[in-house]
Design goal:
Layout (H helix, E strand, L loop, with lengths): L6 E5 L7 H16 L2 E5 L5 H11 L4 E3 L18 H11 L8 H15 L9 E4 L18 H10 L3 E4 L3 H20 L3
Parallel strand pairs: 1-2, 1-4, 2-3, 4-5
Length: 190
C-alpha cells in the first residue's frame, strides 16, 4: 500500500517539552502506529524524538524529514529539500526569511514538509504538538511558539487540525479522536 492511501499525522513540538509530556508523546506515537498511522516528524531532540521512539516501539511507518543528511544522527534519507519547498517555506514564514542563515532556512523548509509531504502534495491529516504558549492556529502564533510555529502555521492555513496538548481541550479532543479510531479498528481490523 502506497503512502497516498495511508493515514498520516505530524508529531512535533518544542525541544524543551516537559518530561511528562514527552512520555505522552511517546505513548501517542506507539498507539497511532498500531492504528496504522504514518508519523511525520523531524528528528529534533525532545518532542520529535519522543514521537519517533513510540512509533519505533510499534514498528510503525514514518517519514522523518531532515534539514540535512545526518541531522541528530538520524539515518533518514528525506533531506534533499527542493527549491519548491524553500519557496513555500519562504512564503509561509514571511519577511524574516531573508534574515535566516541556511541552517535555519533548511529547518523551516523541513517543517513545511512535515505538514505537506516531501513534494508538498500530500497533507498530513492532523498535527500533535506541544509549545509553551499552546499555539494551535496561525492566529495564536507568538514568539513563544518557537520553531514549531512554522509547521503549526502551515497546517492551520491548510485547515489541518492541530492538537497542541499544552491545552487541556486539545488533549481531550485528541484522546477522544484516538478512542474513536481504536473502536473503529476493533470493529473493522485490517
Amino acid at each position: 500500500m502506497g503512502l497516498q492511501k495511508m493515514k498520516i499525522y505530524t508529531g512535533i513540538g518544542a525541544k524543551l517539552t516537559p518530561v511528562d509530556v514527552l512520555a505522552k508523546m511517546e505513548h501517542y506515537g506507539e498507539i497511532l502506529a498500531r492504528l496504522g498511522y504514518v508519523l511525520r516528524s523531524g528528528a529534533a531532540p525532545g518532542a520529535d524524538s519522543a514521537f519517533e521512539s513510540g512509533c519505533n516501539r510499534a514498528n510503525g511507518l514514518k517519514e522523518i524529514f531532515l534539514p540535512y543528511a545526518g541531522f541528530n544522527d538520524s539515518d533518514s534519507e528525506l533531506y534533499l529539500i527542493s527549491e519548491q519547498v524553500f519557496d513555500r517555506a519562504a512564503s509561509e514564514y514571511g519577511p524574516d526569511w531573508i534574515q535566516l542563515d541556511i541552517d535555519q532556512k533548511q529547518k523551516q523548509a523541513r517543517n513545511v514538509q512535515q505538514v505537506m509531504g516531501q513534494n508538498l502534495n500530500e497533507l498530513t491529516h492532523f498535527v500533535i504538538c506541544w509549545t509553551e504558549d499552546g499555539c494551535n492556529t496561525y492566529q495564536t502564533r507568538t514568539k513563544n511558539t518557537g520553531g514549531t510555529g512554522q509547521a503549526i502555521e502551515c497546517a492551520s492555513r491548510q485547515n489541518v487540525r492541530v492538537y497542541n496538548i499544552r491545552n487541556d481541550q486539545d488533549e481531550k479532543d485528541l484522546n477522544a479522536f484516538i478512542s474513536t479510531q481504536s473502536s473503529q479498528e476493533a470493529k473493522h481490523p485490517s
